[in-house]
Amino acid sequence: MDVTLENVTVVRGGRPVLDIRALSFLSGRTTAVFGPNGAGKSTLLRLIGGLERPRGGLVRIGGAAPGLLDGKPPRHAFAFQERVFLRGTVRRNLDLALDLHHVPPDERAVRIAEVAAELGIAAILDRPARQLSGGEAQRVNLARALALRAPVTLLDEPLSGIDRPARTHLLDDLPRWLATFATTTILVTHDREEAFRLADQLVVLVGGAVYAAGSKGAVFRDPRDPAVAELLGYTVLSCDGVRLGVPPGGFRIGAEQSPAFTLEVERVVDMGNHPHLLGRVGDVRVDIRLGPGEAVPAAGSRIGISATQHVSLR
Amino acid sequence: MNDLAQGVLEATRLLLWGDRELWAIVGRTLTISGLATFFAMMVGVPAGYALARGRFRGRTALLALMNTGMGMPPVVVGLIVWLLLTRSGPFGGLELIYTRTAMVLAQFLIAAPLVVGFTAASVQALPPQLPDLLTSLGAGRLRTLWLLSGEARLGLLAAVMAGFGAIVSEVGASMTVGGNLRGSTRVLTTAIVTETGRGNLSVALALGLVLLLLAFMVNAALTLLQQRRPH
After folding, report:
1. Which one of A101, A246, B110, B149 is at 20 to 30 Å from A148 when CA atoms are compared?
2. Do residues B96 and B185 lie in contact, with contact meaning Cβ atoms separated by under 8 Å?
3. Of A4, A28, A150, whose CA–CA distance to A77 is shortest?
4. Positions in chain A short of pLDDT 50
5. Quick one: which of A182, A157, A176 has its CA closest to A25?
6. Could you give the CA distance from residue A275 to residue B95 in angstroms, rounded to a whole number?
């Protein structure tokens, strides 16, 4: 089911929070809405989830407004960033969600068993939902949304506030779960790694406006805007009056290639299996990962570096 | 000590062998305070919910007013209701003064701020995202209110207990607007005052024990309901 926004504006306290001329989320795809904190990502998700109304413009899920339609269940499932549960067991929470989506009791039990087996929560179904660890709670939070098998699945920062081991597992498992239970997925994240690991489409939101949208490869290869480039991990530099974006891993030591820059080495950080050079080119911070056996310059020295890959920016 | 022992004996005798007047007073007390609590819940729970979740001008001022109302002396409430309902008052034509209806009204006014205050506090203690979660799952307004009440039931039942406890044990308002008329508006607390005044200390004490027992039974039932584990 397609999700589209046309000329959507949201104003809060006299300040524009969202201003989107046209944006579509393709049916059957997983799209990451990516941007810094305060970019309006969660507001966008709440509009699609029918929890907020735009001041102007249209939000459509499969051609109709979001929210309740003639007593039919919503066409979306929403996993909130805050893992909120009602009193009672995990099973009760999953059952209530399915009940509110008009799923008959027999089928509810089947769906709960299915989603619990797939998400690895079968053993905690009868535990109080409010006494789970961060990782468990997030699995249940996702299970509640995925069990609904809604045409549109909305995930708000699905991996925030979870310890590293649990996050690593979720990053590995979530794409498989989405493929099993979800069709069109829109997820919001401020983390580049999450956006690239989980989604195939990318929407970059900055200050409430869409700065880039498309397949993640296309957006990454051609960020155009310096703000987008920086969010995607590019180092943005000026060279002969032209703004350039150098992607992560795009620098090497030695000024023999063009474009070349002078790096003031501030620190050398030993990351265990490889050293990192941290320094500045003018005012811009530059981070270079050195290869094994590469000579390590001293902190305080000035060395020549060149960009092996770069894109031109506006 | 002698009076206390005699009081306990008298209370046991009254309860075991029954006393029509006593049972009538107990029934009246329960009816008046029960009705007042019921109306206070009907008005106070939605009002408390609106005060807790609403975003409107004057919300904080209203909450402060309700919180003040929670500590309102019953005799002052009684006096105000008396001034309103007395023959020469603005609602004197309704001829409600010295009736059970007047007592329900006064007790309602004492209990309502307690219910509003407790409800607002318990709803504010809920995770603020809970209503959004229920809305996004497709729960309508009534279902949302019902589910949220279940979540806030510790506070809501505390509201019933506080409201009922406050009015079943108050004497000032009941005396002022009810007049303590025998067979008509006499309730347990006003009966205790009467018997104490007459020097019937053991009867007064017996009535006090009955009142305590009554309050305990009602609160025990509510506490059981409150502490029940969800499935």
Report:
1. B149
2. no
3. A150
4. none
5. A182
6. 92
The whole-number pLDDT of residue B231 equals: 53
Residue A183 corresponds to which tokens in the numbers above? Answer: 């069709």
pLDDT, tens digit, 9 for 90 and up, residues B115-171: 999 999 999 999 888 989 999 998 988 888 889 988 998 889 888 899 999 999 999
Scanning the structure block, which residue is given the tokens 């509810």?
A: A108
CB contacts, 8 Å: B231 with chain A:
88-89, 92
**pLDDT confidence of residue A292:** 78
User: Which residue on chain B is closest to A130 by alpha carbon?
Assistant: B127
A-contacting residues in B 115-154 (Cβ below 8 Å): 127, 129-130, 132-140, 143, 147, 150-151
Residues of A in contact with B143 (CB under 8 A): 100
pLDDT of residue A68: 61
Contact list in B for residue A45 (CB cut-off 8 A) is: none
- Contact residues on chain A for B137, CB-CB shorter than 8 A: 74, 78, 96-97, 100-101
- Among chain B residues, the shortest Cα distance to A83 is held by B129
- CA–CA separation, A13 vs A11, rounded Å? 7
Q: Which long-range contacts (CB under 8 A, 24 or more apart) does B227-231 make?
A: B230/A87, B230/A88, B230/A89, B230/A92, B230/B150, B231/A88, B231/A89, B231/A92
Contact yes or no for A87 and B147 at CB 8 A = no
Q: Which two tokens stand for residue A155?
A: 């995930």
Whether residue A249 contacts residue A289, with contact meaning beta carbons closer than 8 Å, is answered with yes
Phi and psi (nearest 5°) for A285?
A: -75, 135
Nearest to A298 by CA among A269, A271, A268: A268
Bond from prior residue into A66 cis (ω within 30 degrees of 0): no
Q: In which element (H, E) is residue A269 found?
A: strand A260-270
Query: How many Å apart are CA B221 and CA B225, to the nearest integer?
Result: 6
Is the alpha carbon torsion for A224, A229, A235, A236 positive or negative? positive
How is A214-268 classified by DSSP, letter by letter? Answer: EEHHHHHH---SHHHHHHTTPEEEEETTEEEEE-TT-EEE-SSSSSEEEEEEEEE
Say yes or no for a CB contact (<8 Å) between A87 and B151.
Answer: yes
